[in-house]
Amino acid sequence: MNKSTAATREMERRQELPLITPTELKSDATRDISGAMNAILADVFALYLKTKNFHWHMSGPHFRDYHLLFDEQGDQLFAMTDPIAERIRKLGGTTIRSIGHIARLQRVADNDAQYVEPEDMLAELREDNQTLAARLRETHGVCEEYDDVATASLIEVWIDETERRTWFLFETGRRRDSTGH
User: Quick check: is 122 in a domain?
Assistant: First the structure.
């Protein structure tokens, strides 16, 4: 084995190891929590881009309201990304590095349709946010398993924000009957 092959193998081995960080969590906790959080991060980026896509391509009689709603929700999603990535790094994990990496991890389906009806945009984003809330709860369970209260507490805030987005999308797209329900 020549020097460059040995150096490459050593670099690959080091990349698989947790980062040296001041944490009490063990390597299995770092691996499991970082893995779950990286999947959340990829989903948040995918949902952010879908929300902005719908924001950019909104049309119709409710343009202004929906356009502003999607812009606000996109900003909220984007604001989640840095704290998620930094938490992963604090735990000693590595995080996503590219759009391709996001594409490999994301579970939120893209929507590349040329045209989407505004009501369908609302429904799709509502469902995606509901699914994100469920996945955040699953990740919270991983954090509880390893007694990672710091990550769990961040996730609790993101669950609340995600449920709020879901509620707004539901109320905005709902057909009201004569009783207001």
Answer: yes
